[in-house]
Amino acid sequence: MSPETKLEQVPIENDEEIPYLQNPVYDEYPFGKTVYFETYGCQMNVNDAEYAWAVLQNAGFKKTDSYLMADVILLVTCSIREKAEDKIWNRLAFLKTLKRKQPGKGFPKLGILGCMAERLKKKIVEQEKAVDIVAGPDAYRDLPRLLEQATSESTTAINVMLSVDETYADIMPVRMDELSKTAFVSIMRGCENMCSYCIVPFTRGLERSRPVESIVNEIKQLSDQGIKQVTLLGQNVNSYRDLSEVQHKPTPEDVAPMSKGFKTIYKPRLGGLRFAYLLDRVSQIDSEMRIRFMSPHPKDFPDEVLHLISERPNICNHIHLPAQSGSTKVLEAMRRGYSREDYLNLVDRIRHLIPDVSLSTDMITGFCSEDEIDHQDTLSLLNLVKYNFAFLFKYSMRKKTHAYHKMKDDVSQEVKGQRLAEIMEIYQQKLVEVNSQCLGTNQLVLIEKPLQKNPDVLMGRTDGGLKTFIPNSPIPTSVNSQDTILPKPGDYVAAKLTSYKPNSFRAQPLHLSSIKSFYSTGSR
Ligand code: 5AD
Ligand code: SF4
């Protein structure tokens, strides 16, 4: 590992010496114990907020949905692009001016949690004197102690140590939306891929997987609570390897563990329990619970995983396959570990084994040295693959990354903007083709919630993850039934897709259904 890629790691060796691991209860916060969370960035952050909330709830805190009522305001932050950070700086400037509504109470305590905390600890504390608590992604257990420390006006309590083994395996996250029928479950943390543009390995630390049994237990509990969809989360969710208890001897498959043509710059781990094993276990917990996963890396899609997705009706037929670029030259500069051809071969393989799969991607435009030919390659990749959805970004150079140290951010903002508009256009043109092919098909929609703006409409998602709207009105209770019922969040509804907008469908609901009955012959 080169000096610039060295991570700040502090392994926890002796729990006895760390007071916050002994579950203390802090009753005497002079500033009150009502906390408000605001979450930015990816789904990992949504789940991180749930861990932070679990820790604080255990320490006697109450949650509020209004920052005006809060004694403590915690922002769970994202550093992935400059724009994401700017948003949080602006929010902080506003929150600093806030006085609490209750008479006699002054300013609320402000805390920065997550990726920005790790990256900008110095600026946040010394330059900006902006906040009272700074807690990195591996320091949420420490929140009660940090809050207690931050009692005086001039003290900022900080813990941004990255751990090599923290997975919060023993903490049951507390969901922010208690009524939701979907949940996130973190299965691994950190990333070692060191893609040259990416800050994540520096803000979230080394890759580590949570033990299988703790994941299975959490999902069993969620199933008992009536949760109908679990999304397994991780920065490289399919690189999962539980090395904790069972030390399997490396199999021949472990020795060549990656998709054909793919490589890493770090030495791949061998042995342990892998993603296919985990997916097999969690999909057997509750056959009426949908399993999704986010975000995978293209390098770890062995046929074993693809077969499982194809065979198990409750593992959703959606694969997020972040390409990042369509040019082999740029992919090399990005250190992605695959060429355009390897990526396209993988897409073919996936479509061969899972014919009705829905595919999505992340794409960065304007990376260092990207020229017009590279840009055309990206346009042609979008043309060829025809994604069901895509997240398209302008490159934003981040300090600490390999690109920051070794490359030039040499594509102007103007050109980045033009290229983004062009890739957006091609993506949307193709989307029209992809969406039109779905019209008239029957899909199994898991209802999530009524629309806030229009409660007469229910929002749900198809197996492929496509957002779908149906009227909030009674439907037959089963395929041949005369009885009707109002569908509610957590219900499966068989529905025919009738029209679309770029990123959503409208559907005519047919009848209430289940995974079992929908996918058994004749019941669609
Ligand atoms: N600039 C722009 N986009 C980025 N991403 C990661 N780092 C950067 C960056 N420096 C994008 C990648 C990744 C997604 C989560 O964010 O596409 O997959
Ligand atoms: Fe960043 Fe690459 Fe790791 Fe994804 S795989 S988090 S893009 S370094």
Automatic annotation (TrEMBL):
Q: Domain MTTase N-terminal spans what residues?
A: 33-152
Tell me where on the tree of life, at the top rank, the source sits: Eukaryota
E.C. number:
2.8.4.3
Q: Which Pfam families does the record match to this protein?
A: Radical_SAM (PF04055), TRAM (PF01938), UPF0004 (PF00919)
UniProt keyword list:
4Fe-4S, Iron, Iron-sulfur, Metal-binding, S-adenosyl-L-methionine
Name the top EC class: transferase
- A Gene Ontology molecular-function term? 4 iron, 4 sulfur cluster binding
Q: Which GO terms describe its biological process?
A: regulation of macromolecule metabolic process; regulation of primary metabolic process
Family per UniProt? Belongs to the methylthiotransferase family. MiaB subfamily.
> What protein am I looking at?
Mitochondrial tRNA methylthiotransferase CDK5RAP1
Q: Which gene underlies this protein?
A: Cdkal1-001
